[in-house]
Amino acid sequence: MKKYLLAVCLMTTSLMASAQFVTSGGNKMMGSTSSTEGYNSFRFSYSPTTIDAGTIGAIAGALGMSLPQLNGFSLEYTRGINIVNDLPLFLEVGAGVKLQNATSSSEEEDDMYIYKYKYSLNVASLYIPLNVGYKIAITEDFAIMPYVGLMTQFNLSATATDSYEYDYHKQYEDWYEDESGKESHNLFDKKVMGENTFRRLFFGWQVGANITIKDFHIGANYGTTLGRIVNNLEGVKLKGANISIGYNF
User: Fold this and answer.
1) How many domains in the chain?
2) For residue 93, what are the CA distances in angstroms to 68, 145, 149, 151, 161?
3) What is the 3-class SS of the chain, one letter each residue?
4) In degrees rounded to 5, what are phi and psi of residue 17?
5) Which domain holds residue 210?
6) CATH number at residue 26
7) 10 Å Cβ neighbour count for 225?
8) pLDDT score for 61
9) N or C: which end of the chain has fewer CB within 10 A?
């Protein structure tokens, strides 16, 4: 937690220094104006996320295997709070709900049957972003706010599902019946996962920019998780982009 707070302080100090430069000299060059009024925002996001498994991922790649991409969708409320008088330096605090899904499949065929395998991962979570940004108003209706920040994510559920199917060729149908099966696993369950359980709590960092056009929001950022996301496994993390649209009021 001390590292978490220190990171916020360092980011705030850095942005304040940049803000002072922009106010004193940068605005004269750009001819832009700035706003210090607070705001609220509802945002809908899409976040394609890759699983960086470090050594495990390298081994999987050497074996011709690939880790699935998580496709996430989220709904978020954000409050922008001006934190320095006469400067458009904002603290963005929000809360949202995110649903993520990843799937991978394979198929093999021999003389007797076609074997089909499918894997899916579903994660539901709550998250709290904490960003510090400097808002540059280019015109009265158009503004850009670059920011840096931290993210806390609490995972409500994480389920992996394996399914398979043996589809026998026609000439073998009299001797064999097609087979199929499905099994789901709770990734928080030590009885199933042993010591390699999914963590309930994630922390991460992000850097990005928001664009405001009148009352409409467009944003994008990139970030990664910090620390472990799977207990007892080093080097496994999530990284990816986030693209959002929304409405400010």
Assistant:
1) 1
2) 31, 15, 10, 10, 34
3) CHHHHHHHHHHHHHHHHHHHHHHHHHHHHHCCECCCCCEEEEEEEEEEEEEECCHHHHHHHHCCCCCCCEEEEEEEEEEEEEEECCEEEEEEEEEEEEEEEEEEEEEEECCCEEEEEEEEEEEEEEEEEEEEEECEEEECCEEEEEEEEEEEEEEEEEEEEEEEEEEECHHHCCCCCCEEEEEEEECCCHHHHCCCCECCEEEEEEEEEEEEECCEEEEEEEEEEECCCECCCCCCEEEEEEEEEEEEC
4) -65, -45
5) 2-248
6) 2.40.160.20
7) 20
8) 47
9) N
Compute the distance between CA of residue 244 and CA of residue 206 in angstroms, rounded to an integer: 14
Phi, psi of 239 (to 5 degrees): -145, 145
- List 221's β-bridge partners, or say none: 208, 242
pLDDT class of 22 with cuts at 50, 70, 90:
very low
* Start-to-end CA span in the chain (Å): 32
Rg (CA), the chain: 23
Give Cα separations from 180 to 52, 67, 166, 175 (angstroms).
Answer: 31, 23, 6, 16
Phi, psi angles (nearest 5°) of residue 62 = -65, -25
Each residue's pLDDT tens digit, 164-189: 898 888 887 778 888 888 999 999 99
The percent of residues in the chain predicted with pLDDT above 90, rounded, is: 51
Alpha-carbon dihedral sign for residues 144, 249, 97, 10: positive
CA-to-CA distance for 142 and 86, rounded, in angstroms? Answer: 19
Question: What is the token pair recorded at 69?
Answer: 């991409």
Tokens of 210: 């928001």
